[in-house]
From TrEMBL:
Name of the protein in question: Fructose-bisphosphate aldolase
Keyword match Zinc: yes
Record-annotated active site: 81
Keyword list, A-Z: Metal-binding, Zinc
Organism, scientific name: Cephaloticoccus capnophilus
Pfam families xrefs: F_bP_aldolase
Co-factor requirement: Zn(2+)
Record: residues binding Zn(2+) 2: 103, 133
Entry GO MF terms: aldehyde-lyase activity; zinc ion binding
Gene3D superfamilies: Aldolase class I (3.20.20.70)
Signal sequence region: none
UniProt cross-references to InterPro entries, sorted A to Z: Aldolase_TIM, Class_II_FBP_aldolase, FBA_II
Length: 317
């Protein structure tokens, strides 16, 4: 069942975070749905502009619709990740997306407000939720590269003003994370002090954490042992997901870690079976491994085991 992110956040707020996982193909979709059902968790399936271009945007819609039929128990939102204004309108008009992200965080504050307001108006007219972004993460995002030095944390006072002016349903805040596999040299903590201040100014308002992959060191070691040259780096400590959720983070975005699972499975498979050229055996292994990964993340997010309670509260509302 497809629901809006606002519906998911109402149930999750202050208790757990909903995992938001990107997909680009059928194998990722199947692993994601299987892992969500295995862990009895709601989830957000997110599609970036790059994913919509990878095959064809209609292909992804068809894959998600089919996965929803194969796993009728699943409760999830279909969300546009890092949309520009035009892509938001395209998704709003598609009749398929239940949530969009307008990412105008690279524009000046007033421009970000103006663009976000226009998207909110169009989305809300169709009952679709809107995530906006304020502050800047480091790392690679779509086709934009932000230097670590330029990454700026979200200003709590600005966040309050931004939400008041735009009417967005959730806000992506920069609290020290960055996109991709190269986040931190050595372990670093989230900026819980900033998060607390944002929550103080926006009580009960759903916050979103991008760049939340943990970049598992064993996964990177296996990839490199099988011929990869992934640079030494660390991600977010997944034990910090739940403390962040208690401070109002209701959506935690994880994409890179899934790509690492894919890379490890395929590198190991073809290293161990150099005579093979059938992609289905590693594809099968990937789907099973990705399902396990999703279930393990949902445990850490606190979303595991929430599915039936959510179903009851949706039925009652
Ligand atoms: O924020 C993300 C998608 O919007 C993904 O972040 P990661 O690169 O840490 O997986
Ligand atoms: O934030 C970026 C997401 O991980 C999506 O990545 P992508 O734009 O390469 O699909
Ligand atoms: Zn951004
Ligand atoms: Zn992101």
């Amino acid at each position: 069942m497809i629901v809006t992110t606002a519906q998911l956040f109402k149930h999750a707020y202050g208790k757990y975070a909903v995992g938001a996982y990107n997909i680009n193909n059928a194998e990722q979709a199947m692993g994601l749905f299987q892992g969500a059902i295995d862990s009895q968790a709601p989830f957000i399936i997110q599609i970036s502009k790059g994913a919509r271009k990878y095959t064809d945007k209609r292909m992804l819609e068809a894959i998600i619709r089919s996965a929803g039929e194969i796993y009728p128990e699943a409760i999830f939102a279909v969300h546009l990740d890092h949309g520009d204004e035009q892509t938001c309108y395209d998704c709003i008009d598609s009749g398929f997306f239940s949530s969009v992200m307008i990412d105008a965080s690279h524009d000046p504050f007033a421009e970000n407000v103006a663009i976000t307001k226009r998207v909110v108006e169009r989305a809300h007219a169709k009952g679709i939720s809107v995530e906006a972004e304020l502050g800047m993460l480091g790392g690679v995002e779509e086709d934009i590269q932000v230097d670590e030095g330029n990454a700026c944390l979200t200003d709590p006072a600005e966040a309050e003003e931004f939400v008041k002016q735009t009417g967005c349903d959730s806000l992506a805040c920069a609290i020290g994370t960055s996109h991709g596999a190269f986040k931190f040299k050595g372990r670093q903590s989230l900026h819980f002090d900033v998060l607390e201040k944002i929550k103080g100014r926006l009580p009960n308002f759903p916050l979103v954490m991008h760049g939340s992959s943990s970049v598992p060191q064993d996964e990177v070691a296996k990839i490199n042992a099988a011929g990869g040259t992934i640079q030494d780096s660390m991600g977010v400590d997944p034990k910090e997901y739940l403390p962040a959720a208690k401070l109002g983070v209701t959506k935690i975005n994880i994409d890179t870690d899934g790509r690492l699972v894919w890379t490890r499975v395929h590198r190991e498979f073809f290293r161990n079976n150099p005579e093979q050229f059938d992609f289905r055996p590693p594809g099968k292994i990937f789907m099973a491994e990705y399902a396990k990964f999703i279930a393990s993340r949902n445990e850490l997010l606190g979303s595991a085991g929430q599915l039936e309670d959510l179903r009851k509260s949706l039925a009652a509302s």
